UniProtKB/TrEMBL annotation:
Pfam families found in the cross-reference section: Tetraspanin
Residue ranges the record marks as coiled coil: none
Keyword Disulfide bond: no
Membrane topology: Multi-pass membrane protein
Keyword Disulfide bond: no
UniProt protein name: Tetraspanin-3
Compartments, record wording: Membrane
Length: 285
Protein backbone atom coordinates (compact mmCIF):
# COMPACT_ATOMS: atom_id res chain seq x y z
CA UNK A 1 0.00 0.00 0.00
CA UNK A 2 2.69 2.44 1.06
CA UNK A 3 4.93 1.67 -1.93
CA UNK A 4 1.99 2.24 -4.31
CA UNK A 5 1.23 5.58 -2.68
CA UNK A 6 4.86 6.58 -2.95
CA UNK A 7 4.84 5.65 -6.64
CA UNK A 8 1.69 7.71 -7.29
CA UNK A 9 3.17 10.63 -5.36
CA UNK A 10 6.39 10.45 -7.38
CA UNK A 11 4.47 10.28 -10.67
CA UNK A 12 2.38 13.30 -9.67
CA UNK A 13 5.50 15.25 -8.78
CA UNK A 14 7.07 14.43 -12.15
CA UNK A 15 3.81 15.34 -13.88
CA UNK A 16 3.93 18.69 -12.08
CA UNK A 17 7.42 19.23 -13.51
CA UNK A 18 6.13 18.34 -16.99
CA UNK A 19 3.61 21.16 -16.78
CA UNK A 20 6.47 23.68 -16.67
CA UNK A 21 7.57 23.36 -20.34
CA UNK A 22 3.92 23.46 -21.49
CA UNK A 23 3.25 26.59 -19.45
CA UNK A 24 6.58 28.01 -20.61
CA UNK A 25 5.61 27.41 -24.23
CA UNK A 26 2.36 29.30 -23.71
CA UNK A 27 4.19 32.20 -22.05
CA UNK A 28 6.72 32.26 -24.91
CA UNK A 29 3.90 32.41 -27.45
CA UNK A 30 2.39 35.22 -25.39
CA UNK A 31 5.65 37.18 -25.56
CA UNK A 32 5.75 36.59 -29.31
CA UNK A 33 2.17 37.86 -29.54
CA UNK A 34 3.24 41.08 -27.84
CA UNK A 35 6.31 41.64 -30.02
CA UNK A 36 6.20 39.78 -33.35
CA UNK A 37 3.26 37.52 -34.20
CA UNK A 38 0.67 39.90 -32.72
CA UNK A 39 -2.07 37.27 -32.42
CA UNK A 40 -3.03 37.42 -28.77
CA UNK A 41 -5.53 34.59 -28.36
CA UNK A 42 -3.61 31.53 -29.58
CA UNK A 43 -1.41 31.08 -26.52
CA UNK A 44 -4.22 30.89 -23.96
CA UNK A 45 -5.26 27.23 -24.50
CA UNK A 46 -1.67 26.17 -23.86
CA UNK A 47 -1.39 28.32 -20.73
CA UNK A 48 -4.68 26.91 -19.40
CA UNK A 49 -3.52 23.32 -20.07
CA UNK A 50 -0.21 23.96 -18.30
CA UNK A 51 -1.87 25.47 -15.22
CA UNK A 52 -4.46 22.65 -15.17
CA UNK A 53 -1.71 20.01 -15.14
CA UNK A 54 -0.04 21.82 -12.24
CA UNK A 55 -3.25 21.98 -10.18
CA UNK A 56 -4.31 18.40 -10.91
CA UNK A 57 -0.82 17.07 -10.16
CA UNK A 58 -0.83 18.81 -6.78
CA UNK A 59 -4.26 17.27 -6.03
CA UNK A 60 -2.96 13.82 -6.95
CA UNK A 61 0.20 14.36 -4.90
CA UNK A 62 -1.91 15.33 -1.87
CA UNK A 63 -4.10 12.28 -2.42
CA UNK A 64 -1.07 10.00 -2.45
CA UNK A 65 0.45 11.60 0.68
CA UNK A 66 -2.78 11.41 2.69
CA UNK A 67 -3.95 8.14 1.12
CA UNK A 68 -7.09 9.84 -0.14
CA UNK A 69 -8.45 7.58 -2.86
CA UNK A 70 -10.97 10.19 -4.03
CA UNK A 71 -8.19 12.68 -4.84
CA UNK A 72 -6.26 9.92 -6.64
CA UNK A 73 -9.33 9.04 -8.68
CA UNK A 74 -9.98 12.72 -9.40
CA UNK A 75 -6.37 13.05 -10.60
CA UNK A 76 -6.77 10.13 -13.02
CA UNK A 77 -10.04 11.43 -14.49
CA UNK A 78 -8.87 15.04 -14.78
CA UNK A 79 -5.50 14.05 -16.24
CA UNK A 80 -7.22 11.91 -18.87
CA UNK A 81 -9.27 14.95 -19.93
CA UNK A 82 -6.13 17.12 -19.97
CA UNK A 83 -4.26 14.59 -22.14
CA UNK A 84 -7.20 14.59 -24.56
CA UNK A 85 -7.18 18.41 -24.61
CA UNK A 86 -3.42 18.48 -25.26
CA UNK A 87 -3.80 16.00 -28.13
CA UNK A 88 -6.56 18.19 -29.56
CA UNK A 89 -4.41 21.32 -29.28
CA UNK A 90 -1.45 19.66 -31.02
CA UNK A 91 -3.68 18.44 -33.87
CA UNK A 92 -5.27 21.90 -34.15
CA UNK A 93 -1.87 23.64 -34.19
CA UNK A 94 -0.60 21.44 -37.00
CA UNK A 95 -3.85 21.67 -38.96
CA UNK A 96 -4.03 25.48 -39.02
CA UNK A 97 -0.33 25.87 -39.85
CA UNK A 98 -0.12 22.99 -42.32
CA UNK A 99 0.09 24.89 -45.60
CA UNK A 100 2.24 27.79 -46.71
CA UNK A 101 5.91 28.70 -46.59
CA UNK A 102 8.24 31.33 -47.94
CA UNK A 103 9.44 31.32 -51.55
CA UNK A 104 13.10 31.47 -52.46
CA UNK A 105 14.22 34.53 -54.41
CA UNK A 106 17.09 34.59 -56.91
CA UNK A 107 20.25 36.12 -55.44
CA UNK A 108 18.54 36.69 -52.08
CA UNK A 109 19.11 34.91 -48.76
CA UNK A 110 15.69 35.87 -47.39
CA UNK A 111 12.36 34.44 -48.51
CA UNK A 112 9.33 36.24 -49.93
CA UNK A 113 5.85 35.48 -48.61
CA UNK A 114 2.58 35.30 -50.57
CA UNK A 115 -0.86 35.10 -49.01
CA UNK A 116 -2.19 32.76 -51.71
CA UNK A 117 0.25 30.09 -50.50
CA UNK A 118 -1.73 29.82 -47.26
CA UNK A 119 -5.25 28.57 -46.64
CA UNK A 120 -7.67 27.64 -43.91
CA UNK A 121 -9.10 29.12 -40.75
CA UNK A 122 -5.98 30.96 -39.62
CA UNK A 123 -5.53 32.68 -42.99
CA UNK A 124 -9.16 33.83 -42.94
CA UNK A 125 -8.72 35.10 -39.39
CA UNK A 126 -5.57 37.09 -40.20
CA UNK A 127 -6.99 38.40 -43.50
CA UNK A 128 -10.16 39.76 -41.90
CA UNK A 129 -10.02 43.56 -42.33
CA UNK A 130 -11.19 44.30 -38.80
CA UNK A 131 -8.77 41.90 -37.20
CA UNK A 132 -5.88 42.85 -39.47
CA UNK A 133 -6.18 46.46 -38.33
CA UNK A 134 -5.25 45.36 -34.81
CA UNK A 135 -2.44 43.07 -36.01
CA UNK A 136 -0.86 45.68 -38.30
CA UNK A 137 -1.01 48.28 -35.51
CA UNK A 138 0.71 45.83 -33.19
CA UNK A 139 3.50 45.19 -35.73
CA UNK A 140 3.93 48.92 -36.31
CA UNK A 141 4.05 49.66 -32.58
CA UNK A 142 6.51 46.82 -31.94
CA UNK A 143 9.09 48.58 -34.13
CA UNK A 144 9.87 45.37 -36.02
CA UNK A 145 10.77 47.27 -39.20
CA UNK A 146 12.70 49.97 -37.40
CA UNK A 147 14.90 47.35 -35.77
CA UNK A 148 16.18 45.88 -39.03
CA UNK A 149 18.15 49.03 -39.89
CA UNK A 150 21.94 48.74 -39.81
CA UNK A 151 24.53 51.50 -40.14
CA UNK A 152 28.21 51.24 -40.97
CA UNK A 153 30.23 54.37 -40.31
CA UNK A 154 27.04 56.43 -40.39
CA UNK A 155 25.83 54.99 -43.70
CA UNK A 156 23.17 52.28 -44.26
CA UNK A 157 24.35 48.85 -45.33
CA UNK A 158 24.70 48.24 -49.05
CA UNK A 159 22.12 46.46 -51.18
CA UNK A 160 24.38 43.42 -51.55
CA UNK A 161 24.74 43.16 -47.78
CA UNK A 162 21.00 43.48 -47.25
CA UNK A 163 20.21 40.86 -49.89
CA UNK A 164 22.37 38.35 -48.01
CA UNK A 165 20.53 38.84 -44.72
CA UNK A 166 18.20 36.24 -43.25
CA UNK A 167 15.02 38.19 -42.50
CA UNK A 168 12.18 36.95 -40.35
CA UNK A 169 8.83 36.37 -42.13
CA UNK A 170 7.39 39.60 -40.67
CA UNK A 171 10.48 41.62 -41.63
CA UNK A 172 10.41 40.26 -45.18
CA UNK A 173 6.67 40.62 -45.68
CA UNK A 174 5.99 43.93 -43.91
CA UNK A 175 9.19 45.99 -44.03
CA UNK A 176 10.10 45.86 -47.74
CA UNK A 177 8.22 45.54 -51.05
CA UNK A 178 8.00 42.06 -52.62
CA UNK A 179 11.05 41.27 -54.75
CA UNK A 180 8.99 40.83 -57.92
CA UNK A 181 7.94 44.49 -57.76
CA UNK A 182 11.29 45.65 -59.12
CA UNK A 183 11.92 48.39 -56.54
CA UNK A 184 15.48 49.66 -56.11
CA UNK A 185 17.11 49.47 -52.68
CA UNK A 186 17.73 52.74 -50.83
CA UNK A 187 18.00 51.37 -47.34
CA UNK A 188 16.25 48.60 -45.41
CA UNK A 189 12.87 50.39 -45.40
CA UNK A 190 13.27 52.87 -48.24
CA UNK A 191 12.81 51.63 -51.81
CA UNK A 192 12.25 53.47 -55.08
CA UNK A 193 10.83 52.39 -58.39
CA UNK A 194 13.51 51.10 -60.71
CA UNK A 195 13.93 51.88 -64.39
CA UNK A 196 11.36 49.25 -65.44
CA UNK A 197 7.66 48.91 -64.79
CA UNK A 198 6.34 48.00 -61.36
CA UNK A 199 5.37 44.32 -61.17
CA UNK A 200 1.82 43.03 -61.49
CA UNK A 201 1.66 42.04 -57.84
CA UNK A 202 -1.09 44.20 -56.20
CA UNK A 203 1.25 44.74 -53.25
CA UNK A 204 3.54 46.77 -55.51
CA UNK A 205 1.04 49.63 -55.52
CA UNK A 206 0.55 49.42 -51.75
CA UNK A 207 4.19 49.94 -50.82
CA UNK A 208 4.87 53.31 -49.26
CA UNK A 209 8.18 54.69 -47.98
CA UNK A 210 6.34 56.48 -45.18
CA UNK A 211 7.59 54.64 -42.09
CA UNK A 212 4.11 54.40 -40.60
CA UNK A 213 2.81 52.68 -43.75
CA UNK A 214 5.54 50.64 -45.51
CA UNK A 215 3.84 47.37 -46.54
CA UNK A 216 1.59 46.98 -43.49
CA UNK A 217 -1.49 46.75 -45.72
CA UNK A 218 0.14 44.31 -48.15
CA UNK A 219 -0.93 40.69 -48.54
CA UNK A 220 2.77 39.90 -48.16
CA UNK A 221 2.67 41.30 -44.63
CA UNK A 222 -0.29 39.08 -43.75
CA UNK A 223 1.57 36.11 -45.22
CA UNK A 224 4.62 37.07 -43.16
CA UNK A 225 2.55 36.96 -39.97
CA UNK A 226 1.24 33.53 -40.96
CA UNK A 227 4.78 32.36 -41.68
CA UNK A 228 5.96 33.63 -38.30
CA UNK A 229 3.07 31.89 -36.55
CA UNK A 230 3.89 28.64 -38.28
CA UNK A 231 7.49 28.75 -37.11
CA UNK A 232 6.46 29.62 -33.53
CA UNK A 233 3.75 26.97 -33.28
CA UNK A 234 5.92 24.22 -34.77
CA UNK A 235 8.65 24.86 -32.20
CA UNK A 236 6.14 24.69 -29.34
CA UNK A 237 4.37 21.64 -30.82
CA UNK A 238 7.60 19.60 -30.85
CA UNK A 239 7.97 20.22 -27.10
CA UNK A 240 4.28 19.43 -26.54
CA UNK A 241 4.53 16.10 -28.38
CA UNK A 242 7.51 15.00 -26.26
CA UNK A 243 5.71 16.07 -23.07
CA UNK A 244 2.52 14.30 -24.21
CA UNK A 245 4.36 10.97 -24.71
CA UNK A 246 5.94 11.18 -21.26
CA UNK A 247 2.61 12.27 -19.75
CA UNK A 248 0.83 9.21 -21.17
CA UNK A 249 3.55 6.92 -19.78
CA UNK A 250 3.22 8.51 -16.34
CA UNK A 251 -0.57 8.23 -16.53
CA UNK A 252 -0.38 4.48 -17.22
CA UNK A 253 2.01 4.02 -14.28
CA UNK A 254 -0.25 6.05 -11.96
CA UNK A 255 -3.33 4.10 -13.09
CA UNK A 256 -1.63 0.77 -12.42
CA UNK A 257 -0.51 1.96 -8.97
CA UNK A 258 -4.03 3.19 -8.18
CA UNK A 259 -5.49 -0.19 -9.15
CA UNK A 260 -2.98 -1.83 -6.85
CA UNK A 261 -4.05 0.46 -3.99
CA UNK A 262 -7.70 -0.47 -4.55
CA UNK A 263 -6.85 -4.17 -4.66
CA UNK A 264 -4.98 -3.99 -1.35
CA UNK A 265 -7.73 -1.91 0.30
CA UNK A 266 -10.30 -4.50 -0.81
CA UNK A 267 -8.08 -7.23 0.62
CA UNK A 268 -7.77 -8.98 -2.74
CA UNK A 269 -4.77 -11.32 -2.96
CA UNK A 270 -2.54 -10.69 -5.96
CA UNK A 271 -3.59 -12.69 -8.98
CA UNK A 272 -7.01 -13.59 -7.54
CA UNK A 273 -10.04 -12.33 -9.40
CA UNK A 274 -12.83 -10.44 -7.63
CA UNK A 275 -15.39 -13.05 -8.73
CA UNK A 276 -13.35 -15.83 -7.14
CA UNK A 277 -13.08 -13.87 -3.92
CA UNK A 278 -16.80 -13.13 -3.79
CA UNK A 279 -17.82 -16.78 -4.47
CA UNK A 280 -15.23 -19.10 -2.93
CA UNK A 281 -15.30 -22.71 -4.00
CA UNK A 282 -16.51 -25.38 -1.51
CA UNK A 283 -14.70 -28.66 -1.36
CA UNK A 284 -16.30 -31.76 0.16
CA UNK A 285 -14.20 -34.54 1.50
Amino acid sequence: MRSSNHLIGMVNFLTFLLSIPILGGGIWLSSRANSTDCLRFLQWPLIVIGISIMVVSLAGFAGACYRNKFLMWLYLVAMLLIIAALIGFIIFAYAVTDKGSGRTVLNRSYLDYYLQDYSGWLKDRVSDDGYWGKISSCIRDSGACRKIGRNFNGAPESADMFFQRSLSPVESGCCKPPSDCGYAYGNETFWTQGGGLVGANPDCMLWNNEQSMLCYQCSACKAGVLGSLKKSWRKVSVINIVVLIILVIFYVIAYAAYRNVKRIDNDEPAGEARMTKSHPSHFHL
